[in-house]
Amino acid sequence: MSEEELLVLYPVPSLIATLLQSERAKGSPLTENEVLEITDTCEVIAVSRDVAQRMDEQRGYLDIDPENCWVEWQQARTVFMET
Questions:
Q1: Running DSSP on this structure, what letter comes out for residue 60?
Q2: I need a surface site. Which of 24, 27, 72, 76 has the fewest CB within 10 A?
Q3: Does the pLDDT value for residue 3 go beyond 90?
Q4: Sign, CA torsion 59/60/61/65
Q5: Residue 68: enclosing H or E segment and its boundaries?
């Protein structure tokens, strides 16, 4: 199997969207444990890397990396909470 054919797990909806919705519903910043729990249990689909790249382009932003979700969420939330 070539690298292009390898499947990646792609959160749908994006982790950013899911975390934003959860934080707004909570009414206060999510804790690290809450972010990790949401990331560990979010819905994903398996797609090839090229499909994931096209989905990112259509979405208009890169989602946060589940392996580094807490740090990347702290950065993303400051941008996306303002919109």
A1: T
A2: 27
A3: no
A4: positive
A5: none
**Residue whose entry in the numeric block shows the structure tokens 């941008």:** 79
Full-model pTM: 0.85
DSSP 10-25: EESS-HHHHHHHHHHH
The phi, psi pair for 63, rounded to 5°, reads -75, 165
Q: Report pLDDT digits (tens) over 15-45.
A: 999 999 999 999 999 999 999 999 999 999 9
Distance CA 55, CA 71 (A): 23
Q: What angle do CA 78, 56, 46 make, to 5 degrees?
A: 115
